[in-house]
Design goal:
InterPro entries: FA_desaturase_dom, Fatty_acid_desaturase. By secondary structure, this protein is an all-alpha fold. The chain has one domain. It is 58% helix and 1% strand. It contains 14 helices and two strands, in the order ααααααααααβαααβα. Strands 1-2 form a two-stranded parallel ribbon. The radius of gyration is 21 Å and the shape is globular.
Length: 367
Amino acid sequence: MSKSVARQALSAAEIEQFGAEIDALRERTLADIGEADARYIRRIHATVRYTELAGRGLLFFGIFPPAWVLGTLLLALSKILENMELGHNVMHGQYDWMNDPRFDGKTYEWDIVGTSDSWRKTHNFKHHTYTNVKGMDDDIGYGLLRLFPEQRWRPFFLGQPLYAVVFALLFQWGVAIQDLRLGAYFAGRISRDELGEQFRPIGRKMRRQLLKDYVFFPLVAGPFFLPVLLGNLVANGLRNLWTFMIIFCGHFTAKVAVFPKSVLKDESRGQWYLRQLLGSSNLRGGRVFHILSGNLSHQIEHHLFPDIPARRYAALSKEIQAICQRYGLHYNTGSLWVQFGQVVWRILRYALPSKPASLEGRSLVSD
């Protein structure tokens, strides 16, 4: 088998063997999970809390520029860690085995305007089950962007370079409304009352977050109301930009594949693993970078093992790369700026008219 030519499909026998190797790696890792993983997530939880306290405390002295800058950065750091390495990973059930209510994936509520229940549905279930399957995975363009040639072009997409910037700045709001059936509402397929019923829990969460960041803490600051308000606004904006960049680099780089619904028919475990591999991309970096990304810099490993503690992905990535090499499969990884440059290229290129590429006949199993 050639190792120089990357493959998009394997024979049925190869897929079965490939799946067995990934399964074996998963079982070995699960058997090793224990107290070291528990200590790690407790430290992350404590870091989130202490950086938030320090950041908010410094913002109360925000009339002094050094205090405002440091306070804003610490608050942004807390929000990034809470979203990426704590909330996202906890909600995948990575720490349910601890039986600690703070890390219960079914009840954790995170610090953004979107609800965790909505995220568990759109992300944990739909995206991770139907990764990059056109018409099934709502994360393909988020209903706003054309990022693959297989998506049909419409004049609306000419403005997507602007939409993408706004989406990045307001990313938590896009996540919040992702599960709302806005397209069905505008098409007249659901009523205003039905849309209102869907929006009700999201609206409550939005109101709570807005009151916390832009009313309660600024009012507590008294005469420093405006510096605290601005610090919260900037911290949320920095978190939005960072999460947008990391998530888009994990899904929309140059060699990421998109699939037809037909791949789901009688899909084996090995085929599911192969689709996760071909539909994801990684980022190279150091330990701090990986923590700040919630280890979504190891997006391939996350899609293969979403319920394994993310701190394990760095070690798993070495074994996954070795497996890919044996089967001649492309392991998509690169630096943040190279991968993000490819994302920007997609946004710009597919804003322009082009005939949609066909998915007909595309398969993970070779003849």
